[in-house]
Amino acid sequence: MRDLGRVYVRYFNRRYGRTGTLWEGRFRSCLVDSSAYVLACYRYIELNPVRAQLVATPGEYRWSSYAVNAGVEGDPLVVPHPEYMAISPDVTRRHAAYCEFVQQGEMQRFLDHMRRATNAGHGLVGEDLKTRVAAMGRSLERGKPGPRRERADAQQTNEELLP
Predict the structure, then answer these.
(1) How far is residue 33 from each of residues 48, 77, 128, measured CA to CA in Å?
(2) Alpha carbons 112 and 116: distance in angstroms, whole number
(3) Cα–Cα distance between 58 and 69 in angstroms, integer?
(4) Mind listing the pLDDT tens digit for each residue in 89-127?
(5) What is the pTM assigned to this prediction?
(6) Cα-atom radius of gyration of the chain, to the nearest Å?
(7) What does each C-alpha distance from 47 to 40, 41, 57, 102 come to in angstroms?
(8) How far is 115 from 107, CA to CA, in rounded Å?
(9) Where would I find the beta strands (DSSP E) of the chain?
(10) What is the H or E stretch that residue 153 is in?
């Protein structure tokens, strides 16, 4: 993403006779694990233009996949996620259920959780994956800033050996 951004910014600035950056900050993302999170992320993305007050409804935003997911129009570039397909085997019911799901809106608690995970580069994952990763001796939880415990212990041991 960094390299793409650099190349595109040079092209854009040259073409339009401008200087400076095009985007604020750096690209941010996070791992998304469970079906509940995948669909919640769909809803978050579909409602972004509404939250930004660019449009009144998600279907009005030209660049949204909402119209495809809601069954209003087709687009060969949009490939549905298996969790979206699992909403219902019946296409009409799936579209109706998706529309209803998006209209429910997000819970503030989820928005806060997702934004923290994205900004920190941590996974948006369920307890099952956290448990499996912990069994491998790793953690997906945000740790305390500063040196790791092993490093601090090793440093203390080395300091004890010094005269």
Answers:
(1) 21, 23, 10
(2) 6
(3) 11
(4) 999 999 999 999 999 988 888 888 888 888 887 888 888
(5) 0.68
(6) 22
(7) 10, 10, 8, 8
(8) 13
(9) none
(10) helix 149-161
